[in-house]
Design a protein that fits this description.
It contains one helix and two strands. It is mainly α and 66 residues long. The protein has a two-stranded antiparallel sheet with strand order 1-2. The longest helix is centred in the middle third of the chain and has 37 residues.
Length: 66
């Protein structure tokens, strides 16, 4: 049988059936999504840099160069 317990967010005294109350659940989800998006952006930037380095090492001409 589920029991109510306090929200796991520090300083929150709201009782909930979940780990966090609704307010803090949305906050935690938004924070995790932001971290995922930031990590994905960093991975794409690293991939682009590695691709550019490989092209320079292989002597591939830059398409934007006149």
């Amino acid at each position: 049988m589920p029991m109510l317990h306090g929200c796991a967010f520090p300083g929150c005294s709201t009782f909930t059936l979940s780990t966090y109350c609704v307010e803090h659940e949305l906050l935690v989800r938004a924070q995790k999504e932001s971290e995922r998006a930031h990590a994905a952006d960093a991975a794409l930037a690293a991939d682009a840099a590695m691709t550019a380095d490989a092209a320079v090492a292989a002597g591939v001409p830059d398409v934007a160069a006149p």
